[in-house]
Amino acid sequence: MDQEDRLAYRMLGRFTEAADAVREARRKIDKTGEQGWLSTVVARVSLTMLRTRAQRGFEMPDPVVSRGPNDEVGLGVLTALDALTPDERVAYVLQDMFDEGLEQVAPLIGRTPLGALQVEARARQRVEARPVSDVDLEGQREVVDGFLAGDDVLDPEVTLRSEDLWLRGEAMVAPKAALLRAPCMVPAVVGGEAGLMSVVDDKPVALVSFTVRERKVAAIHAITDREHVRRIVPDRVGFAVSS
To answer: What's the distance, CA 139 to chain centroid?
Structure first.
């Protein structure tokens, strides 16, 4: 992704919306002669889009899916960003992910520099409350492989989030998580984290990512809507179930 594409994606969490934001930003610059960096206009367009969609119900974001490592943000981060207000998300993404200064962020969200700093601080507190993996991808995969083999690697406070589920605690999560131990599951990297893809008749139908902390699965995120999965998994990835 280009810088502007990456910014729009982290602002919006959906590939189509991010592409629309970049396209609209370019249109504004080309047709109106609006001054400023493209990334600034992308941020402004993204903020407008976030405010417009604020009334929509919960939807799982679009993770970057690959066979090998990718450095994109995970589903846990994307869902945490979705829970922020539009102003909080813009302030957090610009300041914490792209190192923009308060003088650039404050005018975008209509705050003083001090007000923008307070908005970012609230956002950071909410985002950083989620668990994050503390091992590299290889270490994550070892724990996930252990889980698939039946090892007891669920953290006592593990969470499971999907389109229609939000469970907490090993007793609640374990029965649902056990369903992931199926032959149709193949390894994948989902939003930079060790994950699984369910493949049926050579078509992807579900995605799962695992957050691993202290050699335990601390969080599981799943996308089970087949149309959603097929929209975000490129054909070129070429996943297949081993025979």
So the answer is: 20
